[in-house]
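*** Backbone structure tokens ***
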Amino acid sequence: MQVKRCLHHWPTRVFCISILILQSASLNWYMMTGLSYVWAAIYALDVAVIVVFVITFLISSRNIRVEKHTKDLDISHLRYLPFVYMSWFVYTVVLGVKVVAIFSTDAKELHETDFFGQNTLKASIALAAVVFLTFLPTLNDVQHGPRKDLIVALTSTVTVDILDGVDNLEILFDVGLIDTFPQGLDYVIIIESCITFMLPIVPLFILARYRFGLKAPSMKYLALFRFAIVYLVNFPLLVLRLYIWHGLSRGISVFLLKNMMAMGVVTFELFEKLLCQRKKPGNRETSTAVPDADNLQDII
């Protein structure tokens, strides 16, 4: 099977790096203004992130070329690319350092009327969703079929989860509310948002390991992904919002409903798949061929 190569890779890669630079420059301005110019050293980490992204783009190009020119494509034809998820890990670690530094110091002193105020800060952090949207399509050339369905199933909620994490930080702008927090609650909110930003590591790991659906993913990895969605992102955010609502009698975000729905849907699907697997004890994944549409529906 020959896979046609689309034309979006390098323009999209350039756009991805441009958004990354824009986000880095904006957040670095907050750090140097609110903290000190010593934090200008963070630019060295930004350069490291850009280098890792560029390396990922280059090595993924090799797999794309192989897919374009190889008939009867098999998973053995493509290299395993750990940089696919390692690059996002490096990026979110640096982003997390910036978020912790900004929100643990003077974020509550920012004003909405200032250009570099609360709104620009939230928008700058939310650019992580755009970075992911431009990063993912540059790693593969899958345009349709069961493989595309798998990629969409694993990554379709990532941007919403990132925006959910940004929304979770908004409460830290309320000085009056922060004064009523139990000790350490503000750091819990910051850390949970940083964990949310790191969530894409899980689907990227699965996609890299199985060459973006060229081989049907193992159920244990899909279960890990669903577990991460529920218990690393939505459940902690739900608990925080319920506490702020009922414990501190403050307004909450509509993302509360998103957390509840995500937990309900994912938990139901997880139990449903586990029950189906128990009814089919001999159903093991041994083939390295591209999964067909019927098998994919059983997997996702």
In short: The chain is about 70% helix and 0% strand. Residues 1-7, 284-290, 292-297 have pLDDT under 50 and may be disordered. The longest helix spans residues 219-247.
